[in-house]
Design brief:
The chain is of the alpha+beta class and about 160 residues long. It is built from 5 helices and 10 strands, in the order H-E-H-E-E-E-H-E-H-E-E-E-H-E-E. The chain is globular, with a radius of gyration of 15 Å.
Length: about 160
Amino acid sequence: MNQSKVNEALTRVSLDASRRDISIEIVPREAASSLEEAAELMGVIPAHLLKTLVIKRSDDTYLFALIPGGRKLSWPKLRAEVGVNKLSLPAADIAYDVTRYVHGTITPFGSHTVLPVYIDSSVFQEPVPEVIALGCGEPEHGLLVHPRALATGFDATIADISEPE
């Protein structure tokens, strides 16, 4: 990714966090080839690194589902929570069009399209982590944020939407 794209992504993330009054820490890191490697580079355990999934509804609207490492999205649970019969993962180019972030870097912060955010409730099981890690819009940075600040700042729905991998 060229430097202007990196700067644009980090600026979008920072401005959105500031606008939402969410304190984040942007952390430079090497590009990672797995969730476990990314978690290690971010200084968190895999369960504290959230995957940000773009989910498509049948009416061509989208939402974000944030799922901790070591867990996978439960389609039946998310469908029940959203109140729809059909959801899907869009193709990577569609997710890019919606967020302007490439696969593996997607974050709700600074997304091109503002989407509702659903966070898996397992993130908030006691003891709630001091910080969780998310993508930051480009592969050589991540961000750290307090989970409750994230949920509050995005007016996120906290729900049981995952299951162990």
